[in-house]
Amino acid sequence: MKHFVSMPPLLAFCGGLxxxxxxxxxxxxxxxxxxHAIKRLIEESIxxxxxxxxxxxxxxxxxxxARALNxxxxxxxxxxxxxxANELLTSATSTMFQAVRMAGRPPELANKRARDFxxxxxxxxxxxxxxxxxxxxxT
Length: 139
Known about the structure:
Elements: H1 9-43, H2 46-53, H3 57-78, H4 82-103, H5 107-123
């Protein structure tokens, strides 16, 4: 007959608490990393530059809203309201992408695509089925 030794309830609780704390710490680190990434998206990214170049006031107002949401997320994180911080970061990201869509495509990008298309059609098609500069020998 086998005897099962049960773990004392206090020890089981402490072990579960240690696992929960480790998970909370990794969640907190993930939220902090996400805050930094979203701040870069709002302030330093090509998308941010696209909004700066577009003189579209609504897109700039949306980016300002994303900035405010990010600031509120930082404040929520500092007061240990991690779930709220995570929700605010999601809203900030979504708002920033809305701002980029409002800003539209910069004219430089549209012109580049037109130039690339002209170059690829003027060279003809190589063996790879695309422009001659596909890198295959003999193209």
